[in-house]
Amino acid sequence: xxxxxxxxxxxxxxxxxxxxxxxxxxxxxxxxxxxxxxxxxxxxxxxxxxxxxxxxxxxxxxxxxxxxxxxxxxxxxxxxxxxxxxxxxxxxxxxxxxxxxxxxxxxxxxxxxxxxxxxxxxxxxxxxxxxxxxxxxxxxxxxxxxxxxxxxxxxxxxxxxxxxxxxxxxxxxxxxxxxxxxxxxxxxxxxxxxxxxxxxxxxxxxxxxxxxxxxxxxxxxxxxxxxxxxxxxxxxxxxxxxxxxxxxxxxxxxxxxxxxxxxxxxxxxxxxxxxxxxxxxxxxxxxxxxxxxxxxxxxxxxxxxxxxxxxxxx
Length: 314
Description:
By secondary structure, the chain is α/β, with parallel strands linked by helices. It is built from twelve helices and ten strands.
């Protein structure tokens, strides 16, 4: 069983590689606004065995049982508890704070503002101190983090290269549904996701978007099984040069509005001219804007929840 940053692995009846008994791994957690920290935990947990099962808690997070006991006490006593390294620099608490504060300090090219620094020292902080995992800390991108998430595979002969682009902010089930639909368009798809720079996203989205900066969005998208490659800082307009460089066979976009480029032109005019553009309906109505609106509407509830959760973790 693997908790977020902690866990344990157990045995199973199904045969594993070489005829040995397969190792089934269990993880559980709240997994609210799933981010690359969650993905990294699940990646590590999967490496501990052959089969991964993930349990999602109800709306009450259960770090402790109702009588105050460790929820993993029995697993620990049975000797089936394992720990994996937790990802620093990201937490649901931090992401919630970015939504509530109309600031752009979290963008990759800007320093943390005094307002955001004050928030970082106080939001979700319980009277007894501050938890380094639940609280806010600055994310530091490294090449190793990217390698851990990247597939490392190049397009092979016979594969259909499909290009998609966007912010992919707060990577959520709407994005996953879209990418799954795109993945089904070809027998052997190779999906390249182009991620726009923070300044570009802020230009067409406004406010304090994107909530996650470019480096954070990169890891979130790389963690998706349908994505083979990510262009970090892709141009807003899908140019002839880009299509030729990646040998793109198909360009896809969701049913969301296509904002014109700075000069008023259609950013997808080149793939449309070539007849390789398709608009895909994900079938999901969840958007980044909707998630942010939920957080703003329930601000006090989230603040109280985070303080209670941090007190339990401490």
